[in-house]
């Protein structure tokens, strides 16, 4: 992992999503000296209350259903050589008994994000930890020690108790950690980094493991990834629209001003920018030929005969134009690949409405994250300097900030949005492959003149399988609470499961977009090549050769034959005079970048390498 040269300053009040990402990717942290004094003030206050024998939850009482158990001055069985006080033992036992997660460990970036989030919230100075404990935590993070945190075990209230215990147990010299690529016992990792284990003081165990850092870390990483994926989805859609020679008016700013959802407006503007200088979008219907099977007699010269397709139109006879005369004043009477209709299908026309709704779901998650990053999320909360306090209960308050529902529900919203974005992408992909819906492109985007080729047919199967899997995983974990701690914790958020699901699902969404990109690039090549072949034929061939590409022609002799030839000549002249047709510069740049990784499919070949390269392209694009 590349380490940033600029450490992130932690003061409990200004941590941003971007800073969490920086630490997740290797940046170190520094602790604000002035805020550390406030942190220590709270720890000293707690120590004083213990000296006064005040009953404080989690400090001089047990936890959860043991909250009514007051700690005595001595052990009931005698000290028996104990090295710690009951107060210290209470905190250490909380960590060692709660580190019970199972499964594969989280990736390094997730764990580092958890660490910086936890340190920052404790820097608020309302949790009771000592300054020295936070300095030890920061030293562990800066040394590159990454605690092993298995993925399964948090119910999201009282916070992420079990995974945060796996973070904290390494500070005690226990548990496991990764250090310089090696999985080690926690004590050994500390030793190799030149660090010493610590002993916990009053409330420190509870402060270290009682919070929302796991679900929040996964939410931050997912939000960063999904923000880029939504942008990429707009770009994939734009390339698909170019491949269809689609219509841009549905994306006009004045149209979306009438329904100004922020995400919708943003996606529409993005599409307009990507398509701005396109000469494929909004092309006249009659200029777009349809693909026909290649035959040896398809083309008049060897250079054109190297193409993998033939092209053609159908002529609309004069006696079939009744009631549509005004239309044929603007458009020539030829039916090629594009249907004469003023609107595209929903998966193209409604991109702003669908992608925009996903943007809005993401914006809600980002809003919640921004609040949560600088919030106190443990319990009880300590207010050593509260004005007007009469009793210690006024200053040490048991509340519910550890409950993860605010962020869990925001992730449920995004969780439902992910398969929506994947589904509309798959629908565009399928529309490009299906000869009944792809506006005259070759079936499955392959020439297939001998009937032996499948082209990109099975790519859609893979996309469909992923979309179904995403939809199956989209059930919100938040709607099913399983009470814990002998029903003391009788409603929990399940936000940790939600965050884990959403992070994994965002990775699979990227795969669907990679498959659309692979398909759209192939379709765009075909569309451009077909129109360019028509332009070249119009410039180089005589009228008879050009007219031979038009079906439903009247025979010679026939009363309508002269009109047919005159209209063919008009079509030929318009194509010959036209400049080269091209996509918008934004789409062209994306297409060129993609083609450097995945070549055009001229004939069937093994596609596993192409699919893997498309997925890598998306991963590299997201990482850039």
Please tell me about this protein's structure.
The protein has 624 residues and is α+β, with helices and mostly antiparallel strands. Helix content is 51%, strand content 6%. The protein has 23 helices and 13 strands. The chain has helices at 17-24, 33-51, 86-98, 108-122, 131-142, 161-171, 186-192, 204-209, 213-243, 253-256, 262-275, 302-305, 325-330, 346-349, 351-372, 392-395, 405-433, 457-473, 495-540, 543-547, 561-577, 585-595, 608-623; strands spanning 8-10, 29-31, 102-105, 146-147, 150-152, 176-179, 182-185, 290-292, 310-315, 334-335, 381-382, 396-397, 550-551. The strands form five sheets. Strands 8, 9, 10 and 13 form a four-stranded mixed beta sheet that branches. A hairpin with a 2-residue loop joins strand 6 and strand 7. Helix 9 packs antiparallel against helix 15 (351-372), helix 9 packs parallel to helix 17 (405-433) and helix 17 (405-433) runs antiparallel to helix 18 (457-473). The chain is elongated.
Provide a brief overview of the structure.
By secondary structure, this protein is an alpha+beta fold. The chain is built from 23 helices and 13 strands. It has helices spanning 17-24, 33-51, 86-98, 108-122, 131-142, 161-171, 186-192, 204-209, 213-243, 253-256, 262-275, 302-305, 325-330, 346-349, 351-372, 392-395, 405-433, 457-473, 495-540, 543-547, 561-577, 585-595, 608-623, and strands at residues 8-10, 29-31, 102-105, 146-147, 150-152, 176-179, 182-185, 290-292, 310-315, 334-335, 381-382, 396-397, 550-551.
What descriptive keywords fit this protein?
624 residues, alpha+beta, 4-stranded mixed β-sheet, 23 helices, 13 strands, elongated
């Amino acid at each position: 992992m590349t380490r940033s040269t600029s450490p992130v300053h932690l003061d409990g009040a200004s941590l941003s999503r971007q800073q969490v990402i920086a630490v997740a990717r290797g940046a170190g942290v520094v602790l604000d000296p002035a805020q550390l004094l406030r942190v220590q003030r709270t720890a000293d206050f707690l120590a004083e209350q213990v000296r006064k024998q005040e009953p404080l939850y989690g400090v001089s009482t047990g936890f959860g259903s043991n909250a009514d158990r007051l700690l005595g001055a001595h052990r009931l069985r005698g000290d028996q050589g104990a090295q710690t006080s009951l107060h210290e033992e209470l905190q250490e036992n909380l960590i060692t008994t709660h580190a019970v997660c199972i499964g594969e460990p989280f990736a390094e970036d997730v764990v580092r994000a958890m660490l910086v989030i936890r340190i920052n919230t404790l820097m608020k100075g309302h949790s009771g930890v000592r300054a020295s404990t936070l300095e030890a935590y920061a030293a562990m993070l800066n040394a590159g020690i990454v605690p092993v945190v298995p993925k399964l075990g948090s119910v999201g209230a009282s916070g992420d108790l079990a995974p945060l215990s796996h973070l904290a147990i390494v500070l005690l010299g226990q548990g496991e950690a990764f250090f310089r690529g090696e999985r080690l016992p926690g004590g050994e990792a500390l030793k190799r980094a030149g660090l010493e284990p610590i002993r916990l003081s009053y409330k420190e165990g509870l402060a270290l493991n009682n919070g929302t850092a796991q679900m929040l870390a996964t939410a931050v990483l997912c939000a960063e990834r999904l923000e880029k994926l939504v942008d990429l989805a707009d770009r994939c859609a734009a390339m698909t629209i170019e491949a269809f020679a689609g219509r841009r008016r549905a994306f006009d700013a004045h149209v979306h001003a009438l329904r100004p959802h922020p995400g919708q407006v943003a996606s529409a503007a993005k599409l307009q920018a990507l398509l701005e200088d396109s000469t494929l979008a909004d092309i006249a219907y009659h200029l777009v030929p349809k693909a026909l099977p290649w035959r040896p007699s398809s083309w008049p010269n060897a250079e054109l005969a190297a193409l993998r397709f033939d092209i053609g139109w159908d002529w609309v006879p004069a006696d079939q134009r009744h009631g549509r005369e005004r239309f044929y004043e603007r458009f020539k009477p030829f039916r090629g690949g594009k249907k004469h209709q003023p609107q595209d299908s929903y998966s193209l026309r409604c991109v702003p409405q669908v992608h925009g709704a996903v943007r809005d779901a993401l914006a809600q998650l980002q809003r919640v994250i921004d609040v949560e990053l600088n919030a106190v999320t443990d319990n009880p909360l300590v207010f050593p300097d509260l004005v007007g306090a009469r009793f210690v209960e006024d200053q040490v308050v048991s509340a519910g900030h550890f409950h993860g529902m605010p962020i869990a529900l925001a992730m449920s919203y995004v969780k439902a949005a992910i398969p929506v974005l994947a589904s509309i992408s798959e629908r565009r992909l399928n529309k490009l492959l299906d000869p009944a819906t792809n506006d005259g492109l070759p079936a499955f985007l392959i020439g297939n003149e001998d009937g032996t080729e499948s082209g990109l047919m099975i790519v859609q199967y893979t996309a469909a399988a992923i979309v179904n899997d995403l939809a199956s995983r989209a059930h919100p974990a938040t709607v099913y609470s399983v009470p814990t701690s002998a029903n003391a914790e009788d409603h929990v958020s399940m936000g940790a499961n939600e965050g884990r699901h959403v992070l994994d699902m965002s990775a699979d969404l990227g795969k669907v977009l990679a498959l659309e990109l692979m398909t759209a690039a192939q379709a765009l090549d075909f569309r451009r090549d077909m129109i360019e072949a028509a332009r070249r034929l119009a410039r180089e061939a005589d009228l008879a050769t050009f007219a031979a590409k038009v079906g439903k022609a009247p025979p010679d002799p026939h009363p309508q034959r002269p009109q047919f030839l005159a209209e063919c000549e008009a079509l030929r002249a318009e194509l010959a005079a036209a400049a080269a047709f091209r996509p918008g510069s934004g789409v062209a740049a994306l297409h060129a970048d993609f083609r450097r990784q995945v070549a055009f499919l001229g004939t069937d070949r093994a596609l596993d390498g192409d699919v893997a390269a498309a997925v890598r392209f998306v991963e590299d694009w997201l990482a850039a």
